[in-house]
Specification:
Strand content: 25-35%
CATH topology: Immunoglobulin-like
Number of strands: 10
CATH architecture: Sandwich
Helix content: 10-25%
Structural class: alpha+beta
CATH class: Mainly Beta
Radius of gyration: 17 Å
Length: about 160
């Protein structure tokens, strides 16, 4: 069985002071560096539909209103190697046109080049889902790909 499209095509990360975030059609991933030796009991993480807060050892690292809504019951966080917190949020709106331009409403925005690369990746991911027999992981896209690219769903097979 082949790896999922996002694993084969790589990620387009947006760097932040505390780590990075990136997205697929369905999910938003947040990676937060924490002091080595951090224990799960030192972590306080709240994941709500439009709000996130993360504190480690009483210090607030990330807090605010998310760019768009997520499925509350499907958000998770894990502590890896006692030095990285990985948060996975499931997007409510899962189409290629829903490319988050920032993690929070007014913070951690992707610069224009990164935003462009994120949108291209989501458009290719959409094409991969619509055409499962083809491998788009090494493909390049040009032209009109904003808002998810052209809609071919009305074309006959």
């Amino acid at each position: 069985m082949s790896a999922p499209f996002e694993e084969r095509s790589g990620v387009v990360p947006c760097g932040t002071p505390w780590g990075r975030w990136y997205q697929t059609l369905e999910e938003v991933f947040i990676e937060v560096r924490v002091p080595p030796g951090t224990r799960a009991k030192d972590v306080r993480c709240s994941l709500q539909s439009r709000h996130i807060s993360l504190a480690v050892c009483g210090q607030e690292l990330l807090q605010g209103k998310l760019f768009d809504s997520t499925v509350t019951d499907e958000g998770t966080w894990t502590l890896e190697d006692r030095q990285l917190i990985r948060i996975v949020l499931m997007k409510t709106n899962r189409d290629a046109g829903n490319c988050w331009t920032s993690l929070l409403e007014n913070e951690y925005a992707a610069d224009p080049w990164v935003q462009d690369q994120m949108q291209r990746k989501l458009t290719l991911e959409r094409f991969q889902r619509e055409n499962p027999g083809f491998d788009f992981s090494g493909a390049e896209i040009s032209g009109n790909y904003s808002k998810g690219g052209p809609d071919f769903s009305s074309l006959e097979n």
